[in-house]
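Request: Show me your protein:
***
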Amino acid sequence: MRLHRRPKPLEPLTIRGRVFDWQRRTHLMGIINATPDSFSGDGVAGDIAAAVEKARELTAAGCDIIDIGGESTRPGHDPVGEEEERNRVIPVLVAVRAALDIPISVDTFKPKVGEAALAAGADIINCQWGADAAMVEIAARRSAPLIVMHNQSGTSYAGDCVSEVIRFLETAAAYATGCGVAAGSVIVDPGIGFGKTPDQNVQILERLPEVAQQLPYPLLVGLSRKSFIGLITGRPVSERVFGTAAALALAVAGGADIVRVHDAAPMRDAVAVSDAVCRLGSAQPAPQLQAGTGAT
């Protein structure tokens, strides 16, 4: 079984001096939730020391990017205002940046939070609602990579869910590049768990090769501990490591270039084996995946 190949190889992307070569391996994005109500129960709201320690653990386990967010996106979450989210995110981001020279993304759809995060040392905007015009302008002006994620209110689709997700991301990415974001700096995310039923999440994972083939951008997949995994396995959030690893292996085989994870060490191993089978075709060790080496 070999990795689904795109019609044209993606160009590497350099972030904070690190080269992300999408042809060589799958990259890990580690999650820090600066929230009190994270669905995964790992929020570090108000505890800067815990956030820095978590960032160190993620980096030591092999993560290439640290993703910091200040508002829960779980179903039924309580929305927070721009000021509250900024007050959660920026102190954590400043402390993590002071401690580690690793690429940092800010997980937000609020332009003022994205702007403040870049000013505080973040490198990437991870926008949860596609190509928001204000966020695109900020990313273009500051020459920051932009992750655009498919999202919608509700789970109804006029046609085929996967096809609509692809069209949404294609349009969003074209808008971003048309507004000045470098084409090589756009990353797309099909938004597993957002505006989709459990069956629709499974369909996207099953048909991920279509997403990779039709969109000439690096592909980020976030499925760590998601509720559809809990539905399938019957496991609570804290016991979804094996289910996540299985889904992650399928994502790598389907063409994922970045996977967003909570449990970095076991997921690093799952990525290493998946890449060896699907991408490299060799059992040789992948030194670039060993803990703490960063992106190559």
User: Anything to note?
Assistant: The chain has ten helices and ten strands. The beta strands are 13-15, 18-20, 27-33, 65-69, 104-107, 124-127, 146-149, 186-189, 220-222, 258-261.
